[in-house]
Amino acid sequence: MVNRASLFLALRYLRPKRSFLSVITAISILGVAVGVLMMVVVRAVMLGFEVDFRDTLVGAEPHVLVAKDSSAQNAPPWQEALKAARAQAGTVSAAPYAGGILYMARDDYQTGTQVFGLSRDEGAANLNKLTRHLLDGSLDLPEDSIVISDYHAQQLGVRVGEEISVYASQNVNQAVRQYGLAEDQESEEKKKAILDAIKLNPQTLRVSGVLRSETGGYNGYVSLKTGQKLFQLGQEVTGIAMEIKDPQQAKEFAAGMKPGLPSWTFTLWTDAGESRLAAMQNEQTMMKFVLLIIAVVAAFSVMNTTITVTTQKRREIGVLAALGSRPWQIVNVFLLQAIVVGVIGTFVGLAGSMIVLWLRNDIRSLLTLATGGQVHAVEGVFLSTIPAHIQPWDVTLTCLISVALCVVAGLIPAWFASRVEPAVALRD
């Protein structure tokens, strides 16, 4: 009975005599709603950037690269390492690859890239995930052909079907060492002989495919045999390219493989963007702090409402106290009022945030046009649209924090109001 009376008074105090909702109550609800909207929208967008970036890395880079340690002695042959990799729990596929840095040239243009030589059959899992990033050509990897990114294609000015000259990194490094040796010679004859012996041995490859660099990365891809020929490996390979079931557990996966392959090194897909991912984590931590401040500011609007109501209803509080109401019963009246405002405001903010997230790209377009800018959104390009990723637990926690702050904000002035002396309140 007391609870119903407290709720009745709380709702009555929230409504003035001549209108359904007072201006002060509407402002309080709006303040809470804006705070919740900001927390949900910003958190979803920030998390969306991180998820999109992770998906970009996972969708382009091999999950785990296992390579033979050049300093290791008596390392087991790569065939044994390949068997161990395929037998490891959580492995989707494991394929030998021949790779390294490849310098590419056409006419007066030069550039370089990391190249992976993969068998189309054994490396199908690595290559198939690149299909959605393919702009032109194919990923069939015929002999003496190469798939490059659109970034490198633009630098070289080539299209699918045209040829480029390539130089393996070890050839270039050997040429640099020979040139340095020639410069140290005092005899002009010896110097000339060394310089004449320098040969880069360029090879010609045909461009068979072009990948979108913004989503598919900047790597190049050739067949396994072509890669072995380019990097002069014979029948050997550089390492093993692996795809695993749970890319997020790549570190744990590699740690589980290391004891069985002590002479091999491990490179993870996270290594390519480790600093960027760490920066995103730091940004999210600071953003959570900023959003918490916004929530506290929104809760102050509830406190202002409670203070205003307790001041206006001072005589009624005195009457309740004179009739024998206990302090906690008076606190309940204003605490329920804060809870009602907090719940309604949180619900309105949550509904508004869902609408904003749903229309986020349309809102961006309108704001861009309103400010005289232009919208450049190419389908499939990284960050061509505003990403958003909603985690139910994050949304639930945000709503709970919002209501909790409103309760605390309403409890403080309600506690002071309950301690007023009945005689003093009635005399006022």
TrEMBL record:
**Mind listing the UniProt keywords for this protein, alphabetically?**
Cell membrane, Lipoprotein, Membrane, Transmembrane, Transmembrane helix
Q: What is its main location?
A: membrane
Bilayer topology: Multi-pass membrane protein
Protein's UniProt keywords contain DNA repair = no
Q: Which domain of life is it from?
A: Bacteria
Localization, UniProt:
Cell membrane
Keyword Transcription among UniProt keywords: no
Name of the molecule in the record:
Lipoprotein-releasing ABC transporter permease subunit
Native source organism of the sequence: Prosthecobacter algae
Upper classification of the organism: Bacteria, Pseudomonadati, Verrucomicrobiota, Verrucomicrobiia, Verrucomicrobiales
